[in-house]
Design a protein that fits this description.
The chain is of the alpha+beta class. The chain is built from 3 helices and 15 strands. It has one domain. About 20% of the residues are buried.
Length: about 250
């Protein structure tokens, strides 16, 4: 009886050994596993990590402020400025822009501000305000040309003009102080806080401009380049409407 059991156990062990012998080729490590040491990073490579993200600091998040407003019901162009908490103009966001230069939102025109000033510098976080003007179809006439500069007795730094009332704002006719400005592109009409509103003349090399009121609906702009002077009359200056985009916070 014991001999029979031993024979059976011997047969079972032999059978298991035979199965193991048949399966041994598949249990041998694959070629990829044997070659993996050659694919690992060498000591020279591990000294200087290759990922760029670990070597360079991540970029700061974009500072973008969404500004929306309902344009006044008047045909013309839009100038829009950003003002700080003290009321100082820090960015001319749009100058004589057509309506199609803005995105059309559900019930308003939309634009974006990147938090920078006119020089491209980042402004500090805080409260800011956006407001502007829709300038109607003003008329410009060159009414005189002289060899010398005009007399400045009747000119001033700015003039007060009563604008058309914006029916969307439910306010009375706003009064704006207009001034004359110039740069390398020519002369322009602006607010007394330096928001450009309307191009008067594209003359380079100007050295001086001045403004004089000519009735309730027109102003005269004198400009000179040092050699000759021109007088321009801008009519229909009352055809402008002010609008306000409200206050917002820059983070």
């Amino acid at each position: 009886m014991t001999r029979q059991i031993n024979v059976a156990l011997f047969a079972l062990v032999a059978s298991i050994s035979a199965v193991a012998a048949q399966e041994s080729p598949t249990s041998t490590p694959s070629p990829i596993t044997e070659e993996s040491p050659e694919l690992s990073i060498s000591p020279a490579e591990s000294v200087t990590p290759s990922p760029v993200a670990e070597q360079t600091p991540s970029a700061s998040p974009a500072r973008s402020v969404r500004i929306s407003f309902v344009p006044p019901p008047l045909e013309g162009r839009i100038s829009l400025g950003i003002y700080d908490a003290q009321g100082k103009l820090v960015r001319v966001l749009h100058q004589e822009a057509d309506l199609n230069e803005f995105k059309i939102g559900a019930d308003a025109l939309v634009t974006q501000w990147d938090g920078k000033n006119d020089d491209g510098g980042d402004l500090p976080a805080g409260k800011y305000h956006a407001r502007g003007y829709l300038v109607g179809l003003l008329k410009v006439e060159d009414v005189s040309q002289t060899a010398a500069s005009p007399t400045e007795n009747n000119s001033s730094a700015n003039v007060r003009v009563k604008l058309a009332a914006n029916p969307l704002a439910n306010d009375k006719r706003a009064i704006v102080e207009l001034a004359a400005g110039f740069d390398s592109d020519g002369s322009f009409l602006k607010t007394n806080d330096d928001l450009p509103l309307f191009t008067v003349n594209e003359s380079p090399n100007l050295t001086r401009v001045s403004i004089m009121k000519k009735g309730d609906k027109s102003v005269d702009i004198w400009q000179t380049d040092g050699a000759s002077s021109h007088q321009f009359r801008i009519s229909n200056v009352d055809q402008m409407m002010a609008f306000d985009c409200g206050e917002f916070e820059l983070k």
